[in-house]
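REVIEWER CHECKLIST
Item 1: Sequence provided? yes
Item 2: Single chain? yes
Item 3: Sequence as submitted:
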Amino acid sequence: MADPDTLIKARIHYYGRERYYHSMQVSAVEGMKRFSGDPAFKFFYGMALVLEGRVQEGIRELDPLQSYSEVMLGSLLALIHAHKLCLTVDKEAVAVYDAKLKEERKRADDQALYYAGVFLLYVDRVDKAKEYVDRLLKINPQSKDGLVLKGWVEVSQLRESRNKNNALQYFESVLKTNSRNIEALFGKAKYFELCGHFDEANQASYTLRTVHTHRLREIKENHLNLRLASP
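Item 4: Structure as written out by the authors:
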């Protein structure tokens, strides 16, 4: 069985991709309560507030996260994005964040690049997310989080172009070593759905439901955006 923090993060990612930002916040708060030492949940919470339009609250949550190396880069990107959404843009604050971002990006490790890439993907800056995840995989080619993120970046590009790409290979590379990886299973099902391969999508979805039945109950079936053909 996957670790509880991994399963909570999988829910957060699902809600983020589907733009259910309030549900994303609820799951992030659950993670914050259960895993108070993990700044990722605070980052996801602040991000979800911004994406829902609660910009000032999001800024307050994200600003202290600059002291956590693993989420610093993502937090800076989110803070810049949030300030630009304000009616009156604090150009001085944006300039400070931007300068810090440029410096931190030079020495960012794979974790920092991962959370930055996640944020960029969820605000539809897919090309920029690809840039970050490609650099991540140069640093750590075996990163499971990086490979899954790369797969989802490719899926996002597939949504836009409808031209088949390499998304599947990234999900499969993770599933070879962990056949229960929920994010890779979701990604595999989504890839086949977008390609119109409904038999394969059904199989991937069946595997997902078999392996993670109790967790999928927490995500209402009408939220599952897998438009699969009937068996």
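Item 5: Key structural point noted by reviewer: The first helix runs from residue 4 to 18.
Item 6: Recommendation: ____
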